[in-house]
Amino acid sequence: MSHPPFTAVVETLPETVPFVGPEAIERRTGIRTRARIGANESGFGPSPRVIAALREAAPEVWTYPDPENYELRRALAAHLGIGSEEVTISEGIDGLMGLLVRLFIAPGDIVVTSLGAYPTFNYHVVGFGGDLRFVPYAGVHEDPEALAAKAREVDARMVYLANPDNPMGSFWPAADIARFIDAVPESCLIVLDEAYMETAPEVPLPLDTNRPNLLRLRTFSKAYGMAGLRCGYAIGHRRLIGAFNRIRNHFGVNKQAQVAALAALADQDYLRWAVDAIAGARTRIASIAADNGLRALPSATNFVAVDCGRDGPFAVAVLEALAEQGVFVRKPSAPGLDQHIRISAGPDQALDILAEAMPLAIERAQRAG
Amino acid sequence: MSHPPFTAVVETLPETVPFVGPEAIERRTGIRTRARIGANESGFGPSPRVIAALREAAPEVWTYPDPENYELRRALAAHLGIGSEEVTISEGIDGLMGLLVRLFIAPGDIVVTSLGAYPTFNYHVVGFGGDLRFVPYAGVHEDPEALAAKAREVDARMVYLANPDNPMGSFWPAADIARFIDAVPESCLIVLDEAYMETAPEVPLPLDTNRPNLLRLRTFSKAYGMAGLRCGYAIGHRRLIGAFNRIRNHFGVNKQAQVAALAALADQDYLRWAVDAIAGARTRIASIAADNGLRALPSATNFVAVDCGRDGPFAVAVLEALAEQGVFVRKPSAPGLDQHIRISAGPDQALDILAEAMPLAIERAQRAG
Predict the structure, then answer these.
(1) Sheet harboring B295-296: ordered strands across?
(2) Distance from CA of B176 to the nearest CA of A (A)
(3) ipTM topping 0.95
(4) Is A2 inside a domain boundary?
(5) Are residues B197 and B298 both part of a single domain?
C-alpha cells in the first residue's frame, strides 16, 4: 500500500507540540494545577470591558469575521500613530511567525537567533527548511551586537531578537536596539519580538515604518490578558505588511478575538492598572525567591526568572517539585540559562500557593541532588 | 535602498483577499447590508447553549487554549466513532487547507480541482507553488469520474472534491464518491471537502480512516452556525492527521472556539432543528425564485444556486441590483456556472427582504441588458 509522499522539507520534520500545556500535564499526572504561573499568561485577566464585549458579541458568531480586520487595524493604527497598511493581524505572534518565515525563508536560507530564545520561532524556521544559526546569550541578555555580527558574517536572511526578552525577562534600552538595527544589512529581515513591550521599564524604540527590513511583533496575550483569544499584530513597512496578504489565512482571526481586541485597546486605563499589578507581582515573586535563598533577576516582562543557585538539573528538580504541588512553572533549558526557573506574574492567590510550595520544592530538590 | 527578498514562490503571488466581505462592500458603497445571505453563513445562528458557553467562558480567555485541542478531539472522535488521533482541528477549513497543501505540495507539484470550485483551496495551492489543473463541472455537479481520470493522467499529488458542492449546492450519493476514491491512485491525496455534510439529503460515505490518501474536511461554520469562531476539523488516517503536528500553529484555535465547538457538538437537537430550518429556507428561496420567473437548483447545502436564466453578465447585474438594495449575495464566475447567483438559507426576516428586492433587481438587470 502506497502513501501520498510529504514534501522533502516536511519529510524531515518531527511531530511535535512546542509547549506542553498545563492541561496535558494534569492529564498525565492527575495533579490539579492550583497555580497557573508558567505560560506568561496574565492571571489578572482581561479588562472587564473585554469580558462584556465578548458576552455581547456572542450571538453574532454566526457571521464570518471581517477578513481585512479593518476596524481593528484602524484602531491599532490610530493608537500607534501609523497607517493601517502598516499593521497586520494574525492568530497570535505564533501565527505571524509562521507567515513571516514563509514569506522570506526557502530551504537552506540562514536565520540567526539566540541559543535559548523563543522556540516557536525556531519551529517555524525549521518547518520551512531554514538553516538556524545560534548566538549565545551574553549573561542573561540576548546579545544584539553579536546577533548583528553573525547575521552579516553568515549572510542571514532573517535575524530574531526579543525585547524585552523571553525567557530571561531582560531588556535593552532603545539606543542599543537602534544600534542593532543599523548594524543589520537591509537585505536581512529583523524580527523584533515585542510581546512584552507593555511591561518594559521605558518606552521602546519609536516606530519607524520606513525601515525596509524591520518587523515588530506585538500581542494581546500578555499585559492585555487575552492569550486564549489568539490575537497578535505585526508592524512595519507597507511592503512587508502587504506581503502577508499574499499568503495569510484571511479568515484566521476569529470574531471574538476582533471584538475583544477592540475593547481592550479602548481601555488603556485597565492596561495601566494591569501593568502595575504585574509589577507588584514581580516584586512579590522576588521576595518569595529571597525568602527561599534564591535570587530573582530584574524583569521587564510579566514573569520573573529565578536563579535556583546551582545547575540545570537542580532547577529541573525544583520545577518538578513545584509541579507535584500543583504549581505550574516553566524553565529555560539552554546552557547558561538553565539554572533558572521562570515564574509568571499572577494575582496574590496564585503567589500565595507559590510561597507555600517553594520551601518544600527546594528541600526536595536538595534531597534529590 | 535594498529590501529583504521574498522567496521565489512568494515573489510570484499577488496581494489578495479571497472573498471580499460584506463589511468591505458596506465601507465602499455606503449601503447598509439588510440581508446577509451571501457567505453561506447560518442566519439561524448557533445553539443557545453555544452562546451560553461563550458567555460563561469569557473571563477565562486569559489562559492559552490547549494546544492539543484534547477535549474537542476526544468529543469529536466519540461523536464520529473514530480515534482521537484520526482528527485534527484548525482555524476553519481554510486553515486546514493551508496546512495540507504545505504538507504535500512542493513547487511544480500538480493538483487537480474543478473549474469554479472553492477558490481558497486554489489560493493555498498557488501559494505553495503548486500547479493547478482544472476539470470542468458536468452540468451543475463536480465530475468525480473526470477528476479521478485527470489525476491519473497528470500524476497529480492532490485532488479536490467538495460533496455537497459549493457553489452549486449539488450532491453525489455515497456510491459515486466511493467509486471516485477507488479510482484515484493511493499516492495522490484526496481532499474531500464536506463543509456542508450536515445538510445533505443522505448520510455521506462512511468514515474509513484506513484509507492512506483520504482527508475529509468538516466545519462548525455552516449548519452549526459558528462561522465567526473559525473551527474546522480534518478526519483521516493517523499518518495524515499526525503530520499536521509537524507544521501547524498549535495555539491557533482559540479558546472561545474550543468551548463553543464542544457545546455545539453536545447539542445535536439544535443541529437537527437548524438543518430543518435551513431546508425550509431553501424551499422559500426556490419559491421566491419561481415568483420571479427564475429556476432554483436542488440544494444539499445551506444555500441555493438560482439560475438567472440568461448569461453571466445578466446574473452579475441581478447581483448588483440586489446589492444596491442592501441584499448581500454572491455568485459563481466560472463559465457554465456563471448564470447563477448563490443565496444563503436565512431566517424569514432576511428572506422577506430578498422577496421584496428581487423583482426590482430583475427589472434593473433587464433594463441594463
Answers:
(1) B295-296, B303-307, B340-344
(2) 22
(3) yes
(4) no
(5) no
Do A34 and A71 lie in one domain? The reply is no
Give yes or no for residue B204 having a pLDDT over 90.
no
Residue A1 has pLDDT above 80, yes or no: no
Could you give the C-alpha distances from B177 to B126, B136, B145, B273, in angstroms and in order? 26, 17, 9, 27
Q: Which helix (H) or strand (E) holds B122?
A: helix B119-127
How distant is the Cα of A363 from the closest Cα of chain B, in angstroms?
30
The SS3 call for residue A128 is coil
How confident is the model over B118-127, as a mean pLDDT?
98
The cell for A230 is: 489568539
Average pLDDT estimate for B73-80 = 97
Is the four-CA dihedral A282, A287, A291, A294 of positive or negative sign?
A: positive
CB contacts, 8 Å: A212 with chain B: 1-4
Q: Within a domain: residue B3?
A: no
pLDDT at A131 over 80: yes
Which residue among A39, A70, A188 sits closest to B64, beta carbon to beta carbon? Answer: A39
Report the pLDDT averaged over residues B29-35.
96
Choose one of B235, B266, B297: the last residue of a domain.
B266
Same domain, residue pair A142 and A246: yes
Query: pLDDT category, B368, cuts 50, 70, 90?
Result: confident
Nearest to B9 by CA among B93, B84, B108, B154: B108
In a domain, A209, yes or no: yes
The CATH number that applies at residue A353 is 3.90.1150.10
CB interface of B with A, residues 202-231, below 8 Å: 212-213, 221, 225-230
In a domain, residue B6? The reply is: no
Question: At A188, which CATH number?
Answer: 3.40.640.10
A105 and A155 both lie in a single domain: yes
A18-22: list long-range contacts, CB under 8 Å, 24+ apart. A18/A119, A18/A120, A18/A123, A18/B67, A18/B250, A19/A119, A19/A120, A19/A330, A19/B67, A19/B250, A21/B64, A21/B66, A21/B67, A21/B68, A22/A328
Please check whether residues A60 and A184 belong to one and the same domain.
yes
Residues A19 and A40 in one domain: yes
Confidence category of residue A18, pLDDT binned at 50, 70, 90:
confident
B257 interface with A at CB cutoff 8 Å: yes
A212/B6 Cβ within 8 A: no
Boundaries of domain holding A317: 8-45+269-368
State how many domains chain B has: 2
